[in-house]
Amino acid sequence: MPKISAPTVAEHRVRQRSALLEAATELLVSGGVNAVTPAAVGAAAGLARPSVYQYFSSGADILAAVIEDAFPRANARLALALDAVSGPAERLDEYVRVTLLLANEGAHRPAAALAAAQLPKECLARLDELHREQTAPFMQALQELGVPELLITAQLLGGVLEAAMAAVESGASVDTVTERTLALVHMATA
After folding, report:
1. Stretch (H or E) spanning 73
2. Whether residue 149 has pLDDT greater than 90
3. pLDDT in tens, 132-143
4. What phi and psi values does residue 58 have, to the nearest 5 degrees?
5. Which of 154, 134, 133 is nearest to 144 (CA)?
6. Distance of alpha carbon 67 from alpha carbon 41, whole angstroms
7. Which among 30, 56, 82 is the end of a domain?
8. What pLDDT is recorded for position 165?
9. Residue 5's pLDDT is what?
């Protein structure tokens, strides 16, 4: 019988699953979607491949779990920050700040790796759904501000935000990037 490393079997399973998701995320970010196999994830987490199948049925199942793990945490953090401010201009500014802080912490790396991957249709649909949920406050703030050509303006500002996240992830100062990004957003929404 395998040893459990927690006070209860349930806690042990939660810890094992968490370790597998963490390993899968690191493999995804460093090696792409093809690096996320049950054998590789198990090895990275210090578990035998057969143990991985107690938690996930396939590599695709692991990727689906990574999607379900990464986005909701970032979305919850955004929602909490946005609940603390009022007015569309303040929400837009806070959205930019928190998004860039999350990028600085590496929270967007799994999403970027997943977006570049050839995923099963179900995973892509869920990824799109979670991304829409994540960008909804951004879109709502722009709409409430009455920006002209809402969809085009949102796409353009989204591109600015993507470039800002890339700059932060490449080592640029999060404070400097945030300041410059907010200046551009303010010009576009004035």
Report:
1. helix 59-83
2. yes
3. 888 999 999 999
4. -165, 175
5. 154
6. 15
7. 56
8. 93
9. 64
* Count of structural domains within the chain: 2
* Same domain as 166, residue 91: yes
The pLDDT value recorded for residue 41 is 93
Confidence of residue 116 (pLDDT cuts 50, 70, 90): low
Q: Are residues 52 and 74 in the same domain?
A: no
Q: Give the dihedral sign, CA 44/45/50/54.
A: negative
How crowded is residue 158: how many other Cβ atoms within 10 Å of its Cβ?
14
The answer to whether residue 163 sits within a structural domain is yes
Do residues 92 and 141 lie in contact, with contact meaning Cβ atoms separated by under 8 Å?
A: yes
**Are residue 81 and residue 3 in the same domain, yes or no?**
no
Write down the residue that tokens 């919850």 correspond to.
76
User: Does residue 61 sit within a domain?
Assistant: no
Its domain, for residue 48, covers 1-56
| pTM, two decimal places | 0.76
In 93-173, DSSP assigns E strands to none
How high is the pLDDT of residue 1? 39
Cα separation of 86 and 25, whole Å? Answer: 34
Q: Give which of 66, 83, 61, 88 is closest to 21, Cα–Cα.
A: 66
Tokens of 156: 């353009």
Which residues, including other chains, have CB under 8 Å from residue 166's CB and lie 6 or more apart? none
Tokens 């991957």 correspond to: 117
Same structural domain, 80 and 10: no
* Contact between 134 and 49 (Cβ < 8 Å): no
